[in-house]
Design a protein that fits this description.
By secondary structure, the protein is of the alpha+beta class. It contains 8 helices and 39 strands. The protein binds calcium ion. The site of calcium ion has 5 residues, from loops.
Amino acid sequence: MKHTSIALFSLALLLAACAKQAPPPAALAPKPAAQVDDARLAKADSEPQNWMVYGGNQQAQRFSGLNQITPDNIKDLKPAWSMDFDTNRGQESTALVVDGVVYVTTAWSKVYAADAKTGKALWEFDPKVAGPHAAMNCCDVVSRGAAVYQGKVYVATFDGRLIAIDAASGKQVWSTATFDPESTHAISGAPRVGAGLVFIGNSGGEFGGRGYVSAYKADTGEMAWRFFTVPGDPAKPDGAASDAVLASKAQATWFGKPNDYRGGGNVWNSIVYDPDFDQVYLATGNGFPWLRTFRSEGKGDNLFIDSVVALDAKTGAYRWHYQETPGDIWDYDSVADMILADLNLGGQARKVLMHTPKNGFFYELDRKTGELISAEPYIAGINWAKGIDKKTGRPIMNPLAWYDSRKQPFTASPGEGGGHSWAPTAFSPKTGFMYLQASDYSSARHVPRPTYEYVKGLDNIGTYHFTNHAPGQAAPNPDPNAPKPANYLLAWDPVAQKAAWKMPGLGGAVMATAGGVVFQGHSRNVVMGELVAYRADTGEKIWSHETPNAVAGGVVSYAVDGEQYVLVTTGQGGGSIIAGTPDVRARQNGRLVAFKLGGTATLAGDPPAAGPPVVVAEDFTADSVKVGADLYLNRCARCHGINAMSPNILPDLRRSAALGSKDAWRSIVEDGALQNTGMIAWKRFLPEGGAEAIRGYVAGQARVEAAALAARKP
Ligand code: CA
């Protein structure tokens, strides 16, 4: 069946080639590109040679119907080509492929079009993102992807613009601001399309402000509607599609006075358009500030944080919602990819939305009504709730989890990295399994702050960040008898509502294929990578290939001239910028890497070791170093690594040439000499002498690093 579609596709190309022998006068006209419309998207599964939307199809299943690559022949899967980007920052993009052309976004929201057979770049678009806006997000200037629709490529820039690009020429058609440039929002997510509209959300759940999603007319960029996911001042409605439901349902779940920063509910990752009901689903993030005592007098569900919200796609009118973590104070974003499927549950055909948010429960919702069908723990170790009450749909809370109102620390499991975070997930209609990266027994020790003062422009969540771990990493639990964290690829049976198999490993995005293979991106030593393949039915590891960069972006499959390719966007993701490693490497640009059976390309080697730490001769007083350590933790660690241990995705400051010069250091740290890279002028966030104190602390950490390297030399 699937072979047939490849064969037909090859035949079509052959006929096109024959036609070329007698060139018609129109041959010089630009070739139409990205002619993707709702009809084509609704039947995306009938053209498995393409990957036309972020999730592979409008159901976001990340399932490729191609079956040329199988467990039997996968040993012959080799690199076909690679294409280098011009940026070494975090890469999290899922590439799109339409009729032999790849469209991919990179860090700084740049877009490339490339020949899918050769990797030759066709055009590049640089929206020239405002460098200082990089400071408005936790995890580097990443972009998760573009959308293609009606001859245009849509990219949402990190600094808030939605831009339509002509897919054939790479030239801008229109651009519109989705938020004010001074806003604390940012955009890392991919736009989605449907019903003639482009949908885009934003991040900001650690920086303040209300989350919202906007819909723009795909042809002109005119705004069609906006939906705020959390309420503002009830006396001042927004004039938005959300006004009615915020007044009727959400306002009563918030307490205390609204202000210009409280909110959250940011839709920073998953948006899905459902052609079955002409509705769009939003997956919302945590509330802001994290502590409910500071945003809602310590009470209330705070709708619609940590929820799935269904809207009428054309008007943005509310249809239903399901809140997964009412009153969240544990950073349990509900932003994971939502997957739509038609499942037979208990003999009944149901149109289901599947969701695996950070809070550790696997939810199945009825897409028509929002009714909770099931909610089972997909990981072990959940301690904030004992389960989900199927009658009320509410979590059965552990009262100890309310660390803010109890004013007592609480070690929550899962931690703020979640049982699963944003890494793309897949569903195979062939096996009936959903595939995702998952973590058992991760934890975060939450320590409430007694008071709160909002500071615009700072990661400002109202609790102590990084108290004993790095987000996304296994956290040390103060209980010595606590089970050890465990990471694995999970195959989940959504009909039986239990795990089908688990394979240990720490990977990212997954893709399933009709050839019976599940592909997953991995990293080696944080910044180098590996693409790994498993049998979709049993989880047996059947293949892997090392890549110079980590594979944190999406894995997709497509076909050209009857050959199936597997394509990955490589370059470590932004979440790893704080992950320390004893083996720091030189910074390297991200790349697209394509594989096919019998491929003959050679990939670049692993990056060399980073240069030596800078050993500073000056002495800094112990008091000054202590001040510097505290400032570093609260101002610098988020980007440059906890304890100044950086994997050098953003610069490892222990190796910064500026470390040896008080003046050079001050001009960068205080005055913003490198603000175009995102290193803003920190003067307004530092006390007098703060930059020099930080230099003293980092210089000490550089000495520690130099000693560690010397001790390791033979
Ligand atoms: Ca969050």
